[in-house]
Amino acid sequence: MPGQRIITTSWVANGLFAITAVPYVAAVDAFEVPAVAMALLLFAASMVVWPWALGTAFVRSAEGDDLAVASLFLTVGDAPRAVKRRLFGALVLSIAIAAGTAIADPFGVLVPMLPLGLIGLWAARHGEFPPRRAPA
Questions:
Q1: Rounded-to-integer distance, Cα 124 and Cα 120, Å
Q2: What residue segments make up the domains of the chain, in order of their start?
């Protein structure tokens, strides 16, 4: 499967998010600092992934592929169903963890930016887009 490392990164990030945020919500005070630190670290990682994804998409667009933000993040460039299921599954799980832990760890609501950025990165690197049409 193309882009397996991107998909795996998305799921590993969710695991790291969950193993720090869930115990903190369950009133294990020792997880306060790790939960906040992990949420901020994962958000910081998304600040690297997003420009990388958009820059890669810009290059592909300049080379003649017809990319739009919607096709990059929603259709993932006509990605195989298994890829979409894994990428969007990781995003949904991240949102669920963030929603379930937001009362105790408000920084966790920033974490879903990482799997969303990884969706765009996968699409920019491995998605299949039609060639851009010549202007009339």
A1: 6
A2: 4-126
